[in-house]
From TrEMBL:
Residue segments, region Disordered: 1-20
Species of provenance: Yinghuangia soli
This protein's name: Uncharacterized protein
Length: 87
């Protein structure tokens, strides 16, 4: 029996009304776990692996999945938000 965490859900909640629809791709990139990555990244096994700073996903933050933090208890200012790296 596998005691690991369940896989990420295939269905992602819609962002709240008025939230830019084109940002839903951010939520898909973070696999719904609320985290996305900036800086250098590599695709390993079909998933984006971070090499650098870790940030909360803007969509997950907007739908209340998780607070906007970088590391334990550190708040990220809005002007520090970066786009998902292209891969």
């Amino acid at each position: 029996m596998d005691d690991g965490p369940p896989d990420s859900p295939e269905h992602f909640d819609d962002p709240p009304p008025g939230f830019p629809r084109d940002l839903t791709v951010v939520c898909q990139t973070c696999d719904g776990d609320g985290w996305r990555y900036v800086g250098r990244a590599a695709v390993i096994g079909g998933r984006v692996a971070a090499v650098g700073k870790q940030e909360a996903c803007m969509v997950c933050e907007a739908v209340g999945r998780h607070r906007w933090t970088t590391g334990p208890g550190a708040w990220v200012k809005r002007h520090e938000r970066r786009p998902i790296p292209e891969h």
